[in-house]
Amino acid sequence: MSKLDFSVVNKETSQSFHKQKAMIKKVLAGKTVSCDTCLQPLFLVPKNKDGQAYIQCKKACTHIELEVEN
Fold first, then answer.
1. Is residue 53 assigned to a domain?
2. What is the pTM of this model?
3. Does the residue 1 lie in any domain?
4. Residue 22 sits in which domain range?
């Protein structure tokens, strides 16, 4: 039985995570960050009526849900 090599998948996942983390930091710092898909600016919705906070663009191509404490 051969071993599966997940190193490529792990590397891509790690890069994606760090890119998203940096994007979140920039948006929270008030810097302008554009959506990779539609190039519209991303904005923060601090907490909606359901108690969820997220970052997204106007078209919602990018939608990142954030964990917030009460």
1. yes
2. 0.77
3. no
4. 7-66
